[in-house]
Write a structure and sequence with these properties.
Length: 533
């Protein structure tokens, strides 16, 4: 029979040792001393030990916490809350909810510490998460915690993950006193939904902001690819005197990687070292990605080798990094090292190595890897992988084989997208294969594909092959549909400032001077060609 513990905690010097406890043997020694003392009947004594073990990242400590919990005859709300948190940390949401129900069955009432981890359990449940989460919300209301900022913050996060910002906003608007936790939860929720305008409006209305608030708005802009705004927000954060946390630095590094802002990326790396953040595996992976995308492969490799425990994300970043910098052999070598070290490759891993094979025209190796994905590594090929393989064969001039692969392995062009038929059309133009190109175009036209890039490729193929009638037909379709190709973009970093240029855009403040300089360079080039002739 489970009995409720009395609130009569007797301090014991052994409990202070818990903070230094790191191994299962140490935990067992402290547990043994508690059992021998006069404290075993007091759940407040055993509670601290169980809480440490349950919420530890060490699986053996968590298993021991479960054993202690199962054999306890005296429990209290703190012990139940600790176990619920432990189950959530261990990614066991169903057991967390069952533990909560067990707590209610034995007559314990939930408190404000019960619901945040319980709601988090609903976030990771899967298909039934919305239903269970709504039932937990009902318990929150009946228990009287519907105005607790941390509970409401957890509910807002739950509803935002379920794409229900309407309910989240209703909860937020009903709270008379909103602290920074609630404001940040709303900003983060709208950011994850892609509603940048509302997220920014709320952010600017915040009476006070902390590092997590800045991190939420930066992550929102990073998700939609507005990396220049991420850097602008970071400068504002520095001016406000807010010290960045690791999440902020990851967002900044992602922005630097996509903008090629090496100077700012180097500063972030130095700052991370100064704060001791560089040991964070997520931050280290972001550094690998930043150095790779800025062309500093040696720095990327050095950072990568410095990561003590490399997860799949770190391996993927490094494999992609060397691949995008043209070292396909090194990419394959890293892939083999990843497998040898016991790290399971993912879909992203195979996109990276297949892309490396594509650019180096390693057809044999690419075909072999694609064939091993499912059988050897349990990774089912997705559209991106099929696209890589079509690109691999097309670049190598195997156009008929690529066309056959699409029909037989993918079930036809209708199962693909521009990443599949684009490379094939481009290769048809490169190799002057009008027959394959014409068949592909006609199938796309019959499907009603409105991809501007594919139309432009087809037009150029027909024009260069002398098929003027077909070229005019494609041109007419482009005009009638009002298709416009996305203008090319280039980004440079000058004195720590990122400058972005779009093809045909003259809005830059120094556009006249840039055009005059370009004209001068073209004239010099023309003069040299004339003299050389």
């Amino acid at each position: 029979m489970i009995r409720k513990g009395v609130i009569n905690y007797q301090s014991n010097p052994l409990l202070s040792l818990l903070k230094k406890c790191r191994t299962l043997n140490q935990l067992k020694q402290i547990h043994a001393h508690l059992l021998k003392s006069h404290l075993p009947g007091n759940p407040f004594a055993i509670g601290s030990l169980l809480s440490l073990a349950a919420t530890s990242s060490n699986p053996s400590l968590f298993s021991h916490a479960c054993l202690i919990f199962q054999n306890l005859s005296h429990r209290n709300i703190f012990i139940y809350n600790s176990m619920i948190r432990g189950y959530v940390i261990s990614q066991a949401p169903v057991r967390a909810i069952l533990c909560y129900l067990n707590m209610l069955n034995f007559g314990f009432s939930a408190n404000n510490y019960t619901f945040p981890p319980l709601i988090k359990a609903c976030n990771i449940l899967g298909s039934t998460s919305k239903l269970i989460g709504c039932l937990v919300h009902a318990h929150v209301v009946t228990s009287g915690f519907d105005e607790d900022p941390f509970v409401v913050s957890a509910l807002i996060e739950f509803y935002s993950l379920n794409y229900d910002m309407g309910t989240a906003r209703t909860l937020f608007d009903r709270i008379p006193k909103r602290d920074v936790v609630l404001w940040t939860a709303m900003v983060d929720g709208y950011g994850k939904m892609g509603d940048i305008e509302t997220a920014r409006t709320l952010f600017e209305e915040m009476p006070a902001r902390n590092a997590i608030s800045w991190s939420a708005i930066m992550a929102a802009y990073s998700r939609v690819g507005d990396f220049k705004e991420v850097l602008c927000l970071f400068r504002r954060m520095q001016e406000a005197g807010i010290k960045p946390n690791e999440s902020v630095l990851v967002s900044i590094l992602t922005a630097c990687a996509n903008l090629g802002a090496l100077a700012q990326g180097l500063w972030i790396h130095s700052y991370a070292k100064l704060c001791g953040f560089d040991s964070n595996p997520i931050l280290a992976t972001a550094l690998v990605d930043m150095y790779s995308k800025c062309g500093c492969v040696d720095s990327a490799l050095s950072t990568f080798h410095g990561i003590p425990s490399k997860d799949t994300g770190a391996w993927n970043a490094m494999i992609s990094g060397v691949a995008m910098n043209g070292d396909a052999r090194k990419s394959l070598e890293l892939f083999n090292n990843m497998v040898s070290n016991g790290t399971q490759p993912t879909e992203t891993t195979f996109v990276a190595v297949l892309t490396a094979c594509t650019h180096a025209r390693l057809v044999k190796e690419g075909l072999k890897l694609f064939g091993q994905m499912s059988s050897n590594y349990g990774v089912e090929p997705q559209l991106e992988h099929y696209g890589c393989l079509v690109d691999l064969m097309a670049r190598a001039g195997m156009l008929t084989e690529a066309e056959k692969f699409i029909e037989e392995k993918m079930g036809g062009l209708g199962r693909g997208d521009a990443n599949v038929w684009g490379p094939l059309l481009g290769a048809c133009r490169t190799y002057g294969n009008i027959e394959v190109g014409n068949r592909v175009w006609r199938k796309l036209a019959d499907m009603g594909v409105a991809d501007c890039g594919s139309h432009v490729l087809s037009y150029n193929l027909y024009k260069e092959s002398g098929w003027d009638m077909e070229a005019k037909r494609v041109r007419r379709l482009i005009s009638e549909a009002g298709m416009k190709k996305k203008p090319g973009c280039s980004i440079i970093e000058v004195d720590g400032t990122v400058e972005e240029f779009l093809a045909g855009d003259l809005s830059h403040s120094q556009a006249p001077e840039i055009c005059r300089t370009l004209d001068s360079l073209f004239n010099i080039g023309s003069l040299e060609n004339y003299n050389g002739a």
